[in-house]
Design brief:
Structural class of chain A: alpha/beta
Mean pLDDT of chain A: 94
Oligomer: heterodimer
Largest interface: A-B, 39 and 42 residues
Shape of chain A: globular
Number of helices of chain B: 3
CATH class of chain B: Mainly Beta
Number of strands of chain A: 12
Largest sheet of chain A: 9 strands, mixed
Distance between the termini of chain B: 36 Å
CATH topology of chain B: OB fold (Dihydrolipoamide Acetyltransferase, E2P)
CATH architecture of one domain in chain A: 3-Layer(aba) Sandwich
Helix content of chain A: 25-40%
Low-confidence stretches of chain A: 117-125
Radius of gyration of chain B: 16 Å
CATH architecture of chain B: Beta Barrel
Low-confidence stretches of chain B: none
Order of helices and strands of chain B: HHEEEEHEEEEE
Structural class of chain B: mainly beta
CATH class of one domain in chain A: Alpha Beta
CATH superfamily of one domain in chain A: Thiolase/Chalcone synthase
Chain lengths: ~375, ~140
């Protein structure tokens, strides 16, 4: 087995998130609030931070890293904003900077507030206006229509994802959407982009998230469990529509192969899964393309209660983006750290030691997965 | 409504000019015969920069489709160029020559379109004043 220089040697020092939803302050305030919480959690002095990494969405939301560094009075060696449109790229880059010895302590921050910036659902991209093809919801719907033709899944499959995640969000004190949701409610909702309903699509919320990354050595011995990077996988698909398996998100398979190979693990080793869920469809595509079940088998897998908090593979235990809060793949990583440290409160998955994060960025141009593992006490 | 200036540029003007004459042309590589879309000066299959605008059969199959019951344009923070009557479909068509195109299928109501249906190109001169829009119609339902 190849000895990757980051595997097991780079750790999450601290995490912090704000409440998700509507806020009356701008994004920088939300970023600072999340950063303060992460710094407290990390028990690291602010002047030890020598990397500030942020992320930008194609709607322009997100923090400018040099402005943020000025705001918090830090002069780091490295600043960068990553524009993949989802959070895992920032944290993997931070891990590589630490593993390479370029930085010692990297703060990764994302925040946005649509109520003071731009209001929209899901990814707001205009794909091709002359045909009325718009919004990431349209792309997710094209995927699901093809899936339905191939596999004839039960109509309740996506509903189970939405209902399960809402149930999880109700046990998350920071979640945006916590009203009760039943399958009847789901099925009664009219389609907005057939075959999807508004409940299948993540609605953008305001909030902040911060993740501080350093060496595992630096984290150990502080009386808390050490969560390390165990696997990383990536696959880009720049040709978009002309890529093989574009609608089925088969690019995920490349990231899957690499993440399990680098981790030395397989899907059956995963205790808790966090899927960047711009739509319910992304959960099904992840289960199948990452090998948690076979192609076309997600209907049976989900119907067997596998993805619920007490199932064999709890998914999006914080409610995910559909119900917890849509912060483009950032909160998922924080939830995994909380689960692996055993401090997820009412949502805690018993004995969770390995957590996997899977995300998709851009217009299905970027696929990423990270496996986190907690060191034994 | 005039939209040509927004969609046409030096590298795709042959595509739009052909649509005005009810023809569909795409770039075909002179070296390896790969048909590419969208347009590019370089063949992504063999890296040759020699190509010709080749007439397509106009035939293909519905790879997938959706029906919009809501424009989602406000939510998306963008205005549409054209507001079709709701509900309208967006169809991904796999041309017989290989490329996948996003378009619409005309002449079908909700419930009448299916993945795998055989379609052919049709040329909409009416919707936009200065541009012909490529759409498709069903030849053989599945």
């Amino acid at each position: 087995m190849i000895d990757y220089p980051w595997r097991g040697s780079v750790a999450i020092a601290g995490v912090g998130a704000t409440r998700q939803g509507v806020h009356d302050v701008d994004a920088s305030h939300l970023g600072v609030e999340a950063f303060r919480r992460a710094l407290d959690d990390a028990q690291i002095a602010r002047d030890e931070i020598d990397g500030i990494l942020t992320a930008r969405q194609f709607d322009g939301s997100g923090l400018e890293p040099k402005e943020f560094a000025r705001l918090i009075g830090v002069s780091p060696r490295v600043t960068a904003a990553l524009d993949y449109g989802t959070g895992g790229y920032t944290t993997q880059y931070a891990a590589l900077l630490v593993a390479a010895g370029i930085c010692n302590v990297v703060a990764c921050i994302y925040a946005r507030n649509p109520s003071t910036e731009i209001g929209m659902i899901s990814g707001g991209a205009m794909y091709d206006g002359i045909y009325g093809y718009t919004n990431a919801a349209g792309l997710a719907a094209l995927s699901w229509s093809q899936y339905m033709a191939r596999y004839s899944p039960p109509e309740t499959l996506l509903g189970l994802v939405a209902v399960t995640q809402r149930h999880n969000a109700r046990r998350n004190p920071l979640a945006a959407n916590t009203e009760p949701l039943t399958m009847d409610d789901y099925l009664a909702q009219p389609h907005n982009v057939w075959p999807l309903r508004p409940l299948d699509i993540a609605h953008i919320t305001g909030g902040g998230a911060a993740i501080i990354i350093t060496t595992a050595k630096r984290v150990r011995g502080k009386g808390k469990r050490t969560v390390v990077f165990q696997g990383m996988g990536r696959q880009d698909a720049p040709r978009r529509l002309q890529e093989h398996g574009y609608f089925a998100c088969e690019g995920m398979r490349g990231a899957a192969e690499q993440v399990y190979q680098t981790a030395g693990l397989s899907p059956s080793d995963i205790d808790v899964l966090a899927v960047s869920d711009a739509s319910t469809v992304a959960v099904v595509q992840t289960l199948e393309n990452y090998g948690f079940c076979g192609a076309g088998e997600a209907g049976d897998f989900v119907a067997a209660d596998s993805i619920s908090a007490d199932g064999v593979l709890p998914v999006n235990t914080d409610g995910g983006q559909l119900s917890g809060g849509y912060l483009v793949g950032w909160l998922h990583q924080i939830e995994l750290v909380n689960q692996l440290r055993g401090r997820a409160g009412e949502r805690q998955v018993p004995n969770a030691t390995v957590g996997q994060y899977c995300t998709t960025g851009g217009r299905r141009e970027h696929f990423l997965s990270t496996i986190y593992r907690v060191e034994e006490d | 409504m005039k939209l040509r200036a927004r969609y046409e540029n030096r590298s795709n003007e042959r595509f739009w000019a052909a649509l005005d004459e009810d023809r569909l042309v795409l770039q075909r590589c002179d070296a390896c015969a790969y048909v590419r879309h969208p347009e590019s000066w370089l063949c992504p299959n063999c890296l040759s920069d020699s190509f010709a605008w080749q007439p397509m059969s106009g035939h293909g199959r519905v790879e997938t489709f959706v029906w919009y019951f809501d424009y989602l344009h406000t939510a998306s923070g963008h205005d549409f160029d054209v507001y079709p009557e709701l509900p309208y479909n967006v169809t991904a068509v796999r041309l017989d020559e290989g490329p996948l195109l996003i378009s619409n299928t005309v002449g079908v109501a909700f419930g009448e379109l299916a993945v795998g249906a055989q379609v052919e190109a049709t040329y909409d001169h009416a919707t936009v004043d200065d541009l012909t829009v490529l759409r498709f119609r069903v030849v053989v339902a599945t």
